[in-house]
Prior knowledge:
The chain is mainly β. The protein is built from no helices and 10 strands. Strands 2, 3, 5, 6, 7 and 9 form a 6-stranded antiparallel sheet that branches. Strands 1-10-4-8 form a 4-stranded antiparallel sheet, with no helix packed on it. Strand 5 and strand 6 (about 75) form a beta hairpin. The radius of gyration is 19 Å and the shape is globular.
Amino acid sequence: MMLVIGVYTAPVISKAGDDVWYGASFDFDGHEKYLPSQFKYTSSSVWMSCTDKDIDGSYYYARVNAVNVSDNPVDVSHGYEYYFDVNETHTMLNWVYEKHYNKATVKCTGYSVDDYHGAWFGGYWNPDI
Length: 129
């Protein structure tokens, strides 16, 4: 009598959060947009990637903010700001977790935006990467 035992192993991927798709539109130079907030569970950097835009020459700067209990943004970036254009990816320093907040948002400010048509960007961000 022969006994055959098979073992199946499934790969497990673990990370603190899921990539969140965003779209950010700007009406004029200096216009600010806060992305929808996400829970932040670690002291890690916030990862963000710009994948699309509709106006050549436009770009934006981003910085990480915490979200307080009143759902208001609080700047916890310590002044770190990151330039984004298509195919730009950054791991952004922040102090959301260290300042005892549990939600993060990204504040984006648009530049070289057409005042008539505006500008639109798309991409992904992750609060815990």
